[in-house]
Amino acid sequence: NKTAQADPDPGWQVEPFTLTERSGRTVTDKDLRGTVWVASFIFTRCSGPCPSVSSTVTRLQKELKDEPGVKFVTFTVDPTRDDLGTLKEYANARGADPEKWLFLTGDEAAIHKLMKESFKQAVGRKDGPDVKPGDEFAHSTRLMVVDRNGVVRGLYAGMPDERIPDSQADFDANLARLKGRVKELLK
C-alpha cells in the first residue's frame, strides 16, 4: 500500500469580503475566522455540474456532522437571479443546516473577483445567442478547504469526473483526503 502523496497546500489568503447569507444576515471573512470551512461555487438555475457539487456538500455535511468548528460556505456566481428566497429554497431542498452551511450572495463583480483572486478559480458569464437557461456561467466545480485564519489549505474535486470510467473510487478517495485535511486543521 503506497503512501498517498500529500495534497497541495496553496496557502492563499482569502481577501476581505462582506456578503449576505440566505437568512438576510451579513457575513464577512472575519465571521468565519476560528472555523475551518469548505467553500463551493454554484448557481441555483445551473443545469450542469452544480447539483452534483451541492450533493457532494450535502454528503460532507452528513459525514462531518460530529466535527464542531467546521462550516460549509456556498457562494452563488449568479447573485442577480439567486436572491435570498431562491437560495433559501435551494438550501432547504438539500437539507442544509443553517448554522453550519451558509449560502452567500452579494455583488456579482465582488463574488467573481473573490473567486478569481482569493480562490484562484475560473468564473465567467457566458455570452452569445446560444447560451441556454441554466448554462449562463462557466465556473470551477472545486471545493476549497480554508483554515481558521482564512487561508486556503486545499482544493479538491467537487464531483466525480464522468469522462473517466470508475471515477467514483477516485472521487471517494479525494473526499476522504478532504475530510482528513479538515480534521487536521481542526486539531
Q: How is this structure best described in words?
A:
With about 190 residues, the chain is an alpha+beta fold. The chain is built from four helices and ten strands; from the N terminus they run E-E-E-E-H-E-H-E-H-E-E-E-E-H. The chain has an eight-stranded mixed beta sheet, sandwiched between helices. The chain has a two-stranded antiparallel sheet with strand order 7-8. The two termini are about 25 Å apart. The mean pLDDT is about 90.
Structure characteristics:
eight-stranded mixed β-sheet; alpha+beta; single chain; 24% strand; globular; 29% helix; two-stranded antiparallel ribbon; 187 residues; 10 strands
Beta-strand fraction estimate = 15-25%
Q: How many DSSP E strands?
A: 10
Low-pLDDT residue intervals, each spanning 5 or more residues? none
What is the helical fraction, as a range of percent? 25-40%
* Principal-axes shape call: globular
Mean pLDDT: 92
Please state the structural category.
Answer: alpha+beta
Q: What's the helix count?
A: 4
Main sheet specs: 8 strands, mixed
Sequence of secondary-structure elements: EEEEHEHEHEEEEH
Q: How large is the radius of gyration?
A: 16 Å
- In whole angstroms, the N-to-C terminal distance is 26 Å
Strand order of the largest sheet: 1-10-9-4-5-6-2-3
Topology:
Blueprint: E1 12-13, E2 18-21, E3 26-28, E4 36-42, H1 50-63, E5 70-76, H2 84-93, E6 101-105, H3 108-117, E7 123-125, E8 137-139, E9 143-146, E10 151-156, H4 167-186
Parallel strand pairs: 4-5, 5-6
Antiparallel strand pairs: 1-10, 2-3, 2-6, 4-9, 7-8, 9-10
